What we know:
The structure is a homotetramer of 131-residue chains. Chain A has 131 residues and is mainly α. Chain A has one domain: Winged helix-like DNA-binding domain superfamily/Winged helix DNA-binding domain (Arc Repressor Mutant, subunit A), CATH 1.10.10.10. The first copy, chain A, has helices spanning 13-26, 39-46, 50-62, 80-105, 110-125; strands spanning 66-69, 73-76. In chain A, strand 1 (66-69) and strand 2 (73-76) form a beta hairpin. The N and C termini of chain A lie close together (10 Å). The model of chain A has no long low-confidence stretch (mean pLDDT 91). Chains in contact: A-B, A-C, B-D, C-D. Chain A binds chain B through residues 4, 19-20, 23-24, 26-27, 29, 88-89, 92-93, 95-108, 110, 113-114, 116-117, 119-121, 123-125, 128, 130-131, and chain B through 4, 9, 19-20, 23-24, 26-27, 29, 88-89, 92-93, 95-108, 110, 113-114, 116-117, 119-121, 123-125, 128, 130-131. The structure holds a DNA duplex (15 and 15 nucleotides).
Amino acid sequence: MLFHVDxxxxxxxxDQIARQLKFAVASQAIRAGDLVPSVREMAQHLAxxxxxxxxxxxxxxxxxxxxxxxxxxxxVTREAPDRCRLQRRQLLGDxxxxxxxxxxxxxxxxxxxxxxxxxxxxxxxxSETLP
Amino acid sequence: MLFHVDxxxxxxxxDQIARQLKFAVASQAIRAGDLVPSVREMAQHLAxxxxxxxxxxxxxxxxxxxxxxxxxxxxVTREAPDRCRLQRRQLLGDxxxxxxxxxxxxxxxxxxxxxxxxxxxxxxxxSETLP
Amino acid sequence: MLFHVDxxxxxxxxDQIARQLKFAVASQAIRAGDLVPSVREMAQHLAxxxxxxxxxxxxxxxxxxxxxxxxxxxxVTREAPDRCRLQRRQLLGDxxxxxxxxxxxxxxxxxxxxxxxxxxxxxxxxSETLP
Amino acid sequence: MLFHVDxxxxxxxxDQIARQLKFAVASQAIRAGDLVPSVREMAQHLAxxxxxxxxxxxxxxxxxxxxxxxxxxxxVTREAPDRCRLQRRQLLGDxxxxxxxxxxxxxxxxxxxxxxxxxxxxxxxxSETLP
DNA sequence: GTGGTCTAGACCACG
DNA sequence: GTGGTCTAGACCACC
Lengths: 131, 131, 131, 131
């Protein structure tokens, strides 16, 4: 499990957890039918309150990514992989789109935007810490 | 003034205002020495609580972008254009970087990230509403 | 045995089992003196954890519906049929009453409640799957 | 405000709150555009923890019944009345249907079910405590 | 003032 | 063991 949570990056922790779990399913790091780590396990792993993990797991149930296995834990649904792949594109695309739109509205020309993106890509490609 | 504020996009309104004003200065839509609209005017224009505008203007004074002109209002400082141009690159770059990093951590390969970016660029380039 | 258990309908599985067994006794589908299926059999039949069936059987013993027959299993008591007929009316009536009361409290007039009931009766009367 | 909550009736408190608020909107006791009581007010009114109310309000936002008015509170959405009227029928109908189906599966004939319903209706019609 | 998040810890139902 | 609910209380951002 290579989950990593950063409090104070502006995004609620439960949201970071839910997103990362979706991405993990999309990447097939977690598969349909798998049991996700128990609330308590995950909470300890992330050094976070169990309630926070529970909230993330609850949201994932609402999204149809997890389903309860009474007394057993929570399981990745059959439909989850497809949904998560779609959502990954959607969620990441939305965030990129918002950033790019703000560039344009901020007065950067399309060329300047491309330059800035390339600059950032170069930065992130190099020695960045990646999970 | 073609400011546009979107409550519920996750970013605080006062921050949206401050950023947009910086960008306007960077783009020379507003110039050093110009008076900015009064808090009341701006608040009415944006259909926003005056306190929110006041907060944005306060932050901009702290950043040295605005300075009070006794009895007249707030004026764009002499140093603002340079500062705003630098900050624009920084602020927008940071947001792009965060989005791109999340793509990578979310399991997308560099190529997939480029594809997604190009897809988004195509979307935004076309008939998007731009200020 | 035409028991049917639905996890995730809000009611605990052991309760569904106990109720259905009581109803079966009330309907004389099971009679005084009959042996009920073993915990293992029933658990396999319902695709349910044996502990869950055991819990239901335990509750039924407390209610005086089942009694142990040393080395043989569990037997329906002599008093069970009468008790179950009474309890059936009570249990089902309670649930109906709760539902109807919520309708009234939810702002439906007595007439609207009757209409809604008739509508539901029509639905359930037709092609519903009944045991 | 005639909300009433009963812990230990099997249904989570936050759910009771959310349902009752939907019903209140359906009955036009609360109207589109109205501000609902603040989390703290409602919590005190119901003698319940504010977090519990917050959870109910959050669920109602997910359902599109409430929307945040930043710094002001939560407002009933424009679409809420229609949605709530539909949902009221759905939610109450589901509960009635479940109760009636259990009667039938429990071995009661259609006539016996009608008799039982009439008996319960007579009970509830009389001196029952209604809000 | 408002709602939102997070933590801490208790209790319960279920399997 | 599992998740779910509820309470209590702190802290924050926003308006």
